Amino acid sequence: MSHILRKFPNDPAKPRVVKAEGLYIHTEDGRKLLDMTAGTTTFGVLGYSHPEVLAAMQAQMGKFCHIDYNTWVDPNLEELAALLLSRAPRGLDKVYFPGNSGSEAMEAAMKLSYHVHHDSGKPGKTHYIARLQSFHGATLHGISISELPILAFYEPLLPDGRSKIAQHNPSLNRLPGESMEDYARRSAKELEDKILEIGPDKVGAFIGETMLGSLVGDVPPAPGYWKLIREVCDRYDVHLILDEIYCGLGRSGRIYCCDWDGIVPDFVCIGKNLAAGHAPLSAVVTNHRVEDIIAKGQGRIQHGHTHQGYSLGVAAALAVQRIVHTDAMLDHIQARGRQIVDTITTRLGGHPFFKEVRGRGLLQSFEYDCADKNGFGMTLAKRMLDEHATVINAKWHRVSFTPGYIITEAQLGRVLDDFVAVFESTASGWKTAG
Ligand SMILES: Cc1ncc(COP(=O)(O)O)c(C=O)c1O
């Protein structure tokens, strides 16, 4: 009997892992599996057990594993903050290290936003607007700004003062004949209408993932969408909190995904890719106005965690981000992303099940349409595992390709060849939609 309380108690036990290195997971039953998901939840952007990151962590362990964030200065922390700001949108010049998980970063950004409004004489701005079909964290405040059918049962526990508008999804919600520009304008107007309905003096922040993530399958926003949202936020003194926990830190082919959209948010939350699974660490990137206002106001940030700015995690993150923050790495991510799009489009673009390949950088989703889409995806995943020892993320209506950035052109080419063959042969015995 296992003593572990598992997320899915009715499922059979999962394989035991004895080693994970590079893009591969080694299981106790002797299998060596290529992980195309970067750790299921995409944290493993440099693969597992990256030697440079391990060396940095070992060196750090020789000094200290953690010192308190608010009492001492960990020299690595200053260096990491400077690195994270080196390619941040213009004007972002402060990094707050709230804790370990992305959820903690989201909550910290919500608190900082409230702090700024409060200390600027607008304490009534306590309402947060987010979007449907989104995920921003597993804590109760994280859930309160998320929307997913499986989370609805927590409703009785959630705080008031949250509203949702439609997800901004050009692949799904654009009307027939509607241009991208008109759709972007309609989406921004929905936010403005919601702010006016609630009352601008009550709305503190609008929260969204810069690019819709894994729930819907990596859908980039319509061009101009975020600029229009920024304008709406500015008009009503509403902060813009971007969640780049999934799409940030190189995933999109740029360090910050919002760099593609040319906007400057008030807060950007980053997490899982920061120390890339070698340790948990998250951060909120913001600007010095926040500090100035709080310094003149309450004089302290009313927030803290024992392991905020966890030193071993900071050492890991610094090693990870030194590798990621290079033109060569970002070019590689973009090239591998194009390789996925080109291969799937060229080889499966004419297939009756083909709908779309979309994303940015190494977040690419291939959406298909057929009978029992979820069953089809699960079959693809099972066959890739059984026949090609490759773990892929295929479910619902799409396959998401999110490998570690270290994947080579040849490795990716082989996986895509295997995938196309599995897709075609599975589809040949599968019913079409409808
Ligand atoms: C977009 C997004 N936001 C927030 C989170 C929460 O991060 P964590 O699981 O580290 O708390 C996740 C996690 O998957 C995420 O994908």
UniProtKB/TrEMBL annotation:
CDD domains: OAT_like (cd00610). Pfam families: Aminotran_3. Keywords: Aminotransferase, Pyridoxal phosphate, Transferase. Its cofactor is pyridoxal 5'-phosphate. SUPFAM superfamilies: PLP-dependent transferases. PROSITE patterns: AA_TRANSFER_CLASS_3. Gene3D superfamilies: Aspartate Aminotransferase, domain 1 (3.90.1150.10), Type I PLP-dependent aspartate aminotransferase-like (Major domain) (3.40.640.10). GO terms for molecular function: pyridoxal phosphate binding; transaminase activity. The keyword Protease does not apply. GO terms for cellular component: cytosol. It comes from the Bacteria. Belongs to the class-III pyridoxal-phosphate-dependent aminotransferase family. This is Adenosylmethionine-8-amino-7-oxononanoate aminotransferase.
